[in-house]
């Protein structure tokens, strides 16, 4: 079967495209993307080319862009070109250049889907790419999901050339007398993928000439078991309520008396509930690997799950806290350590929390809620200050006579590290007069001698 028939059958079998579909084609100018564009057009699909210049290879990147522009002009193909500063993006997101390029590329593709009205984005991965991905995932310890190679359909991204290998693509281009550009960095062995391509796979083929075909068959055999595994993991994650996204704060609040004052931007996993699941270690792996934790770290986390509370583990983007029989997962963001002055004469604030102020008479009934702080107005010294807790902070909790370290207060209240970090303090001079959503300082309470009362009301965070 020639390449055209092979790809056409694969598209139909995998339900990648309908004949009337408009399709975006990622077009770098290299052999794979050129073959993809030519094959899809030969099969009658309405193609729009998109090219991204990552500005990583100097003149060579400009050469590729010029080639793409010239080719599309010559063949009357609609083309969109985007230039991005990949290094700056990688630095701002604290990710590798390779990951930055991937994120920029697919973000642009999805943006162009909406702009052009295309049904799918086609990219030029072939079976050799899938084999390389198999070994990359094997070395990462990524589990069964990674060992089935590259999927032909992921969301709206399709890979119609997965049914053919690199040599078949080159033969097609030669038969069609089509020239292409070559990325010189593909020949370097600095990257893991290139080492696998240029060193490992040739070694395997020297041992077994049909090694590539055998690996492809193995990946295909893993597809069905991987689907069953994914289904079991997804069902378990639903039971454990692990499908919450950050920012969805439902059921994720600090329980503070009768008021939920601070949204906790973390996901909680009960370790004992996890241990009841048949695939407990696998569930932990799939959950944490999605947030950047590697398999070595996850193995340590699993082994040490009954360890001392307070231990933290970090990925590039998230951190995991072991806290009294729970795993707490939080985004690894820089804390807001700014100081926020509250000037006299102002009665509402939106930063860093929603706070309102009212002046009341002492002989009137006052609200009793952790969301409100009713303080003796004549004892307060403006400007007041909102800030995060600092080491050594102390106050006199309402109802007590002596000072108490804030850290000891939190410990008594069984607050975890994330809750402590998310807390805000209201200060008058050097005194902590209110731990927001918790308790006021006894010295600033309303007494029989109080004449005026300042009532601070904390609105529920959204």
Strand content: 15-25%
* DSSP summary: helix tally: 15
What low-confidence regions span 5 or more consecutive residues with pLDDT below 50?
Answer: 244-263
CATH homology group of the largest domain: HUPs
How would a textbook summarize the main sheet? 6 strands, mixed
**Secondary structural class:** alpha+beta
Question: What is the domain tally?
Answer: 3
CATH topology annotation of the largest domain: Rossmann fold
Mean pLDDT score, rounded?
90
Distance between the termini: 59 Å
Write out the strand line-up for the largest beta sheet, numbering strands in chain order: 3-2-1-4-6-5
Query: How much helicity do the residues have?
Result: 25-40%
CATH architecture designation of the largest domain: 3-Layer(aba) Sandwich
The level 1 CATH classification of the largest domain is Alpha Beta
Task: Count the E strands.
Answer: 23
CA-based shape: elongated
Q: What is the alpha-carbon Rg in Å?
A: 30 Å
Explain how this protein is built.
The protein has three domains: 3-230, 3-Layer(aba) Sandwich (Rossmann fold); 253-331, Up-down Bundle (Chorismate Mutase Domain, subunit A); 340-458, Phenylalanyl-tRNA Synthetase, Chain B, domain 3 (3-Layer(bba) Sandwich). The chain is 39% helix and 21% strand. It is built from 15 helices and 23 strands. Helix 6 crosses helix 10. By secondary structure, the chain is of the alpha+beta class. The protein has helices at residues 3-13, 31-42, 59-74, 86-93, 97-116, 127-140, 144-147, 166-176, 192-207, 211-239, 271-275, 280-289, 295-303, 406-412, 417-422, and strands at residues 22-26, 46-53, 78-83, 120-122, 153-154, 157-158, 253-256, 259-263, 266-270, 312-314, 318-323, 326-331, 340-342, 348-349, 355-361, 372-376, 384-387, 394-395, 404-405, 425-428, 431-435, 439-440, 452-458. 30% of the residues are buried.
